[in-house]
Amino acid sequence: MPYPRITADPDRMGGVPCIRDTRIPVSTIISMVADGMVASEIVAAHPDLVPDDIAEALRFAAEAVRERENPLSNAS
Question: Which of 49, 58, 59, 72 has its CA 20 to 30 A from that of 65?
Fold first, then answer.
């Protein structure tokens, strides 16, 4: 797996991709970034994280979007 900081365990959080076997979903990190939070604020809110976790979550999300059909391409 090219994302060693991202784990998905069916017995934890229903298999949702999380950061390093924690219960912190990648989607939570992405939402925090989208809301304008910077890495230091995210780490303060989730002390189990380090800045590299946030960077990898962003790379993971970018790849996930790249792998999916673009819903905007069907918009009128």
Answer: 49
Q: Give the whole-angstrom CA distance, residue 23 versus residue 55.
A: 17
Long-range contacts of 5-12 (CB under 8 A, 24+ apart): 5/52, 5/53, 5/56, 5/57, 6/56, 6/57, 6/60
Helix, strand or coil for residue 42?
helix
Q: Which residue has tokens 């784990």?
A: 7
- Does residue 56 have a pLDDT over 90? yes
CB 5 within 8 A of CB 52: yes
Q: Is 75 exposed, middle or buried (0-12, 13-18, 19+ CB in 10 A)?
A: exposed
Distance separating alpha carbons of residues 12 and 21, to the nearest angstrom: 8
Q: Residue 21 CB: number of other CB atoms within 10 A? A: 12
